[in-house]
């Protein structure tokens, strides 16, 4: 419905109440509706799921259409990210938000800072989803409110051309609301617990849930040691739980991202139950590290399995965990991914130990032999030392091609001494084009950085504290923060406006007319920042 159509229909409704509603402005109602386009989280989930599905189809047609996101740990951070994207690029197309379980644990738990081990309150995840969308909707309300003020000003001047142009922009307004890929960890319990949490996350607005194949009560960060995976049937039960939640909530095209941690997980808590030779459980067990045993020489308490007619003893640790054979991680990843896609997942996530296109692409090629349109969500993780990794990749490529690398020490390539070198320049170029190249060569549909705003908050706060509490004093804030906000056009320099003060003034005027006590008058110090 267009802005003008909504005004007309609302005014008809007001007239039908025999004067009792004459204090209500049809245009004001239309403005409030435009500023609150999404009434519920489910409205958001349905809207954003369609965006993601369309983007996935576009990527299948051309891998140059990959998508991106940054992890955000607070609604304000997500809001400022989307405002920045609209300012610099004119559209939010292809840009999402990522909700990192790591950052929820580290920054949002009532227990205080926690490691990424699913110890934080499960309800903190849907609470952050709701918070993120509250701030994104507020960004819409703020921007549209400024457009309405410009429309009123153009009308007051009798400038019909400008008024028509502004009204057209209002009718075709692009929202700040974008898809969120939300981390549900390993499901926070059994499949029923996963289903209940998934419903809460979907109700809050999540159209995409990312779930991993680790043991829920032993879950570790993807870049830590000690990861333990579950048999495929256990994981598939949780994938189905997520799909049931989507379907129950009326988000039939919701997206499930199946993450495998098998590359770095050398342990399993269970021996899978085999129904027949060669089934998925039998394949899972085939990777167990076993030794053949003599039936006449069994140890007390030994756990045994049969394999190819032989009696085998899986290696069991004092923790009661079973060990996989070394070097089987990639094979297990490929099996995980194929099985997940064949059983209801939409996208894959392979957690790797380094950002190496060749490694990722080799696994995706094997997956695509079975599932031709398989595609990944990939963690461009801050846990990788990107500088060192890519300098070493260039060093190795040069060595393989016979190029002289005698001027470089491979183990010390992080050194600032190499920053101006040819090798460093080539490595930086590979980093710059990593997302585009990996989208084309390794099947990566969505690139995200899990915890970037954790690091930017720490870095910017450190820089401000060093200056403000040092000799620079107030100049440390003015020169490095406020002056840069003004010169770079950062909307938050007018923080009262950003927090919704002007939107509130508009509402006061709707409700009380000339009697409204508004905050944005001549004595508001924010007027010092009006361009």
UniProtKB/TrEMBL annotation:
Q: What Gene Ontology terms for biological process does this UniProt record contain? A: carboxylic acid metabolic process
Any keyword Magnesium?
yes
Q: Which reactions is this enzyme annotated as catalysing?
A: D-threo-isocitrate = glyoxylate + succinate
List, separated by semicolons, the cofactors it needs. Answer: Mg(2+)
Q: Which InterPro entries match?
A: ICL/PEPM, Isocitrate_lyase, Pyrv/PenolPyrv_kinase-like_dom, Pyrv_kinase-like_dom_sf
Sorted alphabetically, which keywords does the UniProt record give? Answer: Lyase, Magnesium, Metal-binding
| Residues at the active site | 221 (proton acceptor)
The GO terms this record gives for MF are:
isocitrate lyase activity; metal ion binding
Q: Which residues bind Mg(2+)?
A: 183
Q: Paste the cofactor note.
A: Can also use Mn(2+) ion.
**Protein name as catalogued:** Isocitrate lyase
């Amino acid at each position: 419905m267009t802005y003008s159509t909504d005004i007309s229909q609302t005014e008809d409704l007001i007239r039908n109440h025999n004067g009792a509603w004459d204090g209500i402005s049809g245009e004001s109602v239309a403005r409030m509706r435009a500023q609150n386009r999404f009434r519920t989280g489910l409205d958001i989930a349905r809207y954003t799921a369609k965006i993601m599905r369309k983007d996935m189809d576009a990527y299948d047609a051309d891998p140059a259409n990959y998508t991106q996101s940054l992890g955000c740990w607070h609604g304000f951070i997500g809001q400022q990210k989307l405002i920045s994207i609209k300012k610099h690029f004119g559209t939010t197309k292809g840009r999402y938000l990522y909700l990192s379980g790591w950052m929820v644990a580290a920054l949002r738990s009532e227990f205080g800072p926690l490691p990424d081990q699913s110890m934080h309150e499960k309800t903190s995840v849907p609470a952050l989803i709701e918070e993120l969308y509250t701030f994104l909707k507020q960004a819409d309300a703020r921007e549209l409110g400024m457009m309405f003020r410009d429309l009123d000003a153009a009308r007051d001047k009798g400038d019909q051309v400008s008024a028509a142009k502004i009204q057209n922009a209002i009718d075709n307004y692009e929202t700040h609301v974008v898809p969120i890929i939300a981390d549900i960890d390993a499901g926070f319990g059994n499949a029923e617990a996963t289903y209940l949490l998934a419903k809460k996350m979907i109700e809050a607005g999540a159209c995409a849930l990312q779930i991993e194949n680790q043991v829920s009560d032993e879950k570790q960060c993807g870049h830590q040691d000690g990861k333990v995976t579950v048999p495929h049937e256990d994981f598939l039960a949780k994938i189905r739980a997520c799909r049931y939640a989507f379907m129950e909530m009326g988000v039939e095209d919701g997206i499930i991202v199946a993450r495998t941690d098998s590359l770095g997980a050398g342990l399993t808590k269970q021996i899978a139950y085999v129904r027949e030779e060669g089934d998925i459980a039998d394949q899972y067990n085939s990777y167990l590290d076993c030794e053949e045993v003599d039936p006449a020489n069994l140890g007390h308490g030994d756990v045994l399995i049969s394999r190819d007619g032989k009696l085998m003893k899986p290696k069991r640790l004092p923790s009661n965990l079973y060990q996989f054979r070394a070097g089987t991680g990639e094979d297990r990843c490929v099996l995980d991914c194929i099985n997940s896609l064949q059983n209801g997942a939409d996208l894959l996530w392979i957690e790797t130990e380094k950002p190496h296109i060749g490694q990722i692409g080799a696994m995706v090629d094997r997956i695509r032999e079975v599932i031709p349109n398989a595609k990944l969500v990939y963690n461009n993780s801050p846990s990788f030392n990107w500088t060192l990794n890519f300098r070493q990749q260039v060093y190795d490529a040069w060595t393989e091609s016979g190029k002289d690398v005698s001027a470089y020490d491979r183990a010390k390539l992080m050194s600032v001494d190499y920053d101006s070198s040819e090798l460093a320049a080539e490595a930086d170029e590979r980093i710059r084009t990593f997302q585009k190249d990996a989208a084309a060569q390794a099947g990566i549909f969505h690139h995200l950085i899990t915890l970037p705003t954790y690091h930017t908050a720490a870095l910017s706060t450190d820089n401000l504290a060093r200056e403000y509490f040092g000799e620079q004093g107030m100049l440390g804030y003015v020169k490095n923060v406020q002056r840069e906000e003004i010169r770079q056009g950062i909307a938050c320099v007018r923080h009262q406006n950003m927090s919704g003060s002007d939107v509130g003034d508009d509402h006061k005027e709707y409700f009380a007319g000339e009697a409204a006590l508004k905050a944005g008058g001549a004595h508001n110090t924010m007027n010092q920042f009006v361009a």
